Structure formats: structure tokens, C-alpha cells
Amino acid sequence: MLMLLTIFGVLGAFFAMRTLGSASQQITQITDATAALSQAKDALIGFAASHSQTGAPGTRPYLPCPDKRAAAGLGTANDGREDRNVVTGVCVVQEGNLPWVDLGLAGTDSWSSRLRYSVTAAFSNSVSGMQLTSVGTLTVNNAAGAALATALPLVVISHGPNRWGATGGTGVIVTLPPAANVNERENTDGDTVFVSSPPVAAGGAGGEYDDLTAWLTTAILLARMQQAGKL
Q1: Which residues, listed in sequence order, are joined to residue 42 by a DSSP beta bridge?
Q2: 47 near 56, Cβ under 8 Å?
Q3: Which range of residues forms the domain containing residue 12?
Q4: Tens of pLDDT along 44-100?
Q5: Residue 25: band (very low, low, confident or very high) from pLDDT cuts 50, 70, 90
Q6: Is residue 11 assigned to a domain?
């Protein structure tokens, strides 16, 4: 009996260490992914501050276009560079991968997925550039559907540890979230509405959710461009 209790005690300690180790790893991964999103926002501001429109008056800044995830249209999919029509200044897609090569970033989160990037056209056109009157079109809601932020110029997303809907480091797109994961689906459906929420376990309201969502407001972006002497 003493031998059995000893074995059970050792096994219990082993599984406890595994659980604690797993939790610690998850915290580290989430911290690193959050830092990657913050770096992405800073890099996007830096890109805009260092790029001027090609049309008159030739001084207005603009944000980069996304790196497209599929082959159709101009440019190369999943190469880490923005894809745009340089003649018209229009992005090939308004949502895709963060253009990590153009921004000088690693471009992946803690789970080896590309960061998703959506941008408002009025801020990303390289011919017209953004103006003080430019208005964002993107919205971020909470899990209940209430708006957290509106009229945003850009949103950046990590698809978290379950990786549903993410693009892998080799360009392979992971399966979309299950139908029950309605809030994660909102972050992959290509429209102008996104969700930011604390984690939700499978079976919870709105379905499983482990995405991390970051954004810039129009006011902050324009203020940064003014500080940089671009507007």
C-alpha cells in the first residue's frame, strides 16, 4: 500500500508539473504574441511616416497594403510584401497577411501563423495618401456584439493557439473556424467587422475564441503623422 501511495504521489506531482508547465508556456506564448501585435502597430506607423504619396501634392503618408494570401491579381501571394497596383495606388486586397518583409518584422505569432492585417482604403492608397479628413471603415466589437472601437484605419490579428483561419509560415491556410465559433469566424470572413474578447472555451457563448486583436484609431494614427511632419 505504501508503495502504491508513493507511485500515485509521484504520478500526481508529474501531472501537476506538466499542467503548470503547460500553463506557463501558454502565458509566455500569449505575452510574445501580444508583443508581436504591438511591434506590428509601431512598424505600420513607421512605414506610413516614411512613405509619401506619388500623386500631388506628394507629401501625404500612406499605410502599406496587405500581402495577399491567394494567387489572383497583381503581386505574389504569401511573400511578405505588400500587393498593390502602383499606377492607381489601390491595394490588390484590403485584408491579408501583414507585409512582414516590408515592415522588417518576423511576421509570425507564437504559433508560427502569419499575422492577419486589414486596412481602410482611404489610408492605404499610395497615389492619394491619407488626409486629416480620412475616415476609417473598420470596427472591433466585443464577444456580445457591442462596439469597442469604430472608424478604424487598421486591425491586426493573431489567430491564437487553435490557429483556425490562419496562414501558416509556408503559406498554407488553416481550416476556417467551425460554424459554432461565430466570433472567430468574424475575424476570418473578410468583412470590416472584427472581434476582440478574452478567451472562451469550446461550448461557450459565441463558440471557442482565442484570437488576439489589435488596432489603431484614426485619431492616434493621424496624430502620429502630424508629429512626424507628414500632415
Answers
A1: none
A2: no
A3: 2-64+109-227
A4: 999 999 999 999 999 999 999 999 999 999 999 999 999 999 999 999 999 999 999
A5: confident
A6: yes
Cell 508513493 belongs to 6
pTM: 0.89
The widest CA-to-CA distance across the chain, in whole angstroms, is 86
Q: How far is CA 129 from the centre of its chain?
A: 22
CA distance 190 to 94: 9
For 169-204, the pLDDT digits (tens) are 999 999 999 999 999 999 999 999 999 999 999 988
d(C-alpha 166, C-alpha 126), whole Å = 27
Domain presence at residue 79: no
**Using alpha carbons only, what angle is made at residue 159 by residues 122 and 67, rounded to the nearest 5 degrees?**
40
Q: Is residue 90 part of a domain?
A: no
Is residue 99 a part of any domain in this protein?
no
Whose grid coordinates read 500612406? 62
Dihedrals phi, psi of 82, to nearest 5 degrees: -65, 150
What is the residue-wise DSSP string for 22-91? HHHHHHHHHHHHHHHHHHHHHHHHHHHHT-B-SSTTS--B-PPPPBPSSSSSSS-TTSSS--B-TTT--B
